[in-house]
Fold:
Amino acid sequence: MADIIVIFIVMLVIFLILFRLRKALFLLGLFFKIFSILMILLVVGSIVFSYYIIKDANNFKNNFTNSSNLFLMKQNVNGNDSLLVGVTIDPNNKAFQSLNKESIDNLQKMYTDGKLQLMEKDYYKIFVIDIKSLDNISLYNITDRNVQLTKEETKRVLSSSNAREEFSSIVAGKQGTDKNSVLKTLSASNEELKGYLFSYYLSTVFNPKNMGEFLLQLKNDNIKVYDETALFTAIKLVPKSLIDKLL
Structure:
C-alpha cells in the first residue's frame, strides 16, 4: 500500500509540474517550429544566393576581358568627390584609352547627381576607385623618361588640375633640368598623362596574381562597382581576416 501511495504522490507531483509548465512547453514547441522554419529558409536562401554568386562569377569571368569597361579615379576634398581621370579598355586590343576633359566633366555631373548607373548600358562594368587606395597596394615606382615616380608623386600628378605642369616639375627636379624644357617634350594632354599613370594602378590591382589586393580594396569600399551584382556583394561579406591571408 505504501508503494502505491508513493507512486501516486510522484505521479501527482509530475502532473502538477507538467500542468505548471504547460505554457512553457507550448512556447518551447512554438519556438522549435519557428526555429525550424527559419533554418529551412536560411538553407534555401543560401543555396539560391550561392547559385547567383556562381552564375555571376562565371558571367564576370567570361565577359570582363571581352567587353568595354569604364574605370574612374576619384578624390574626396572637403566632403565632395571629384573625378580625376577616366579610362576605358578596348576589348579588341586590350589597350587603355583615356577619356577627354569633356567626357570626364559629363561623368562628374552624372556622378554628383547619383546617375552614374545610367552609363551601364554603354559598359559591362563601371569601377570608381578612390585615390587613397594607392596608399594600400603594392604599386611599384613608375619609371618614365628614366625617372622613377613614387606613390606620392603619382598621386600629386593624378590629383593636379594641371598634370603636365606637375609631372614636368617632378621630372625636372629629379634630372636637375628646367621644368619648361621637360614640358615642351610632353605631347600628351593632362587627361592622357593621368590616364597613362592610372593604367599602372589598374594593371596592378586587376592583375589575377594580385586578387587579394583587389578583394581588400573592394572590401574597404575603395572600389565601387556599378552595377554591384551578387559576386561583389558576396565579396564584401567575406571577413577581412580571410582576405588578409590572400595577401
